[in-house]
Amino acid sequence: MRFFLVIGAILALACPAAAADADDAADDRHPLAAWAIDTLKDLRTRIEPLSLASWHPAVSVGRAGKGRLLFGVQMPITPGIHVRNPHESWTVPEVVIALQAAHAAVEAAHPDGPDMVIGDISRRNGGRFWPHRSHQHGLDVDMRYFLLGEQPADYKYRMVTRHNFDTARVWTLIEHFYASGQVDRVFVDYRHQRRLYRYARKELKKTAEELAPILSYPRGRYRKDALVRHVRGHHNHLHVRFDAPVAQTLGRLWTVGEALAMQRDIDLQIKGQFDYVVRRGDTLSGIAARNAVSVADLRAWNRLPRRLILRPGRVLKVMRTN
Fold this sequence. Notes:
By secondary structure, the chain is α+β, with helices and mostly antiparallel strands. It contains eleven helices and twelve strands. Strand 1 and strand 2 form a beta hairpin. It has a four-stranded mixed sheet, with helices on one face. The chain has three domains: 2-71 and 247-251, no CATH class; 73-241, Muramoyl-pentapeptide Carboxypeptidase, domain 2, CATH 3.30.1380; 272-319, Membrane-bound Lytic Murein Transglycosylase D, Chain A (Roll), CATH 3.10.350. Helix 1 packs antiparallel against helix 2, helix 4 crosses helix 5 and helix 5 crosses helix 6. It is globular.
């Protein structure tokens, strides 16, 4: 594993852009990066999948809206950090470390406060995660806003208002994300941005110029030149998209299709089955044909009634057949 991490770090330092496609950047590759890419691709073809999964570092493949997570880790529940849905909170070590550092920063500035509450991140293998449009490659994290008057062990999402929005703690969290350089973007409702902006100007004496790269408020809801952006649906939780140079750079060595095939191969060997997430437009016969199984088997494995409406996001079991 240490060997792969070293090569991943070399790639992250030597390649022009971690999120770019390896073939697109082939002409601009540093010789060291080219050697690392070729070495990893060769090793991947010669190592048995289960062995590879036992020591290969986590890999983030593709984009937020079309990606996979290979060899991911489950977000741990640690003192001060509560994970609401552990089975839907798979990510890469770089994100785990970044979240733990963010909690430490908030706790240092505001001791004895409420826990940081983590919502959805990704499914174990990434991919489509209904109802989210993103959350497919392990780098998108939903978090509950810090709220005033929180009760111990109350981890539900609450309606956020101007009366319970903990402006000081949320500002410290966002400022830490900005200073860390480990976050690509944060989605926060524009009304909450206004509260953060006024707090930073009045209480912290920040200038408009200092706040411009952090908050899109007051320059417009849909500006993309600030870390924090307005996206509908983020009034009661914030959404953070992290950068993970090693995991993303290793992800350049895989296509989404290759990652999916590897995950299914591993799951079949370990569990004798893999999960198929229903997509818009799928039919039971189409899913069966695509996975070389019968419709009758699909119905039996998943206890499906004769009259069934397949809804996007439903998870179906596909078993190993002879």
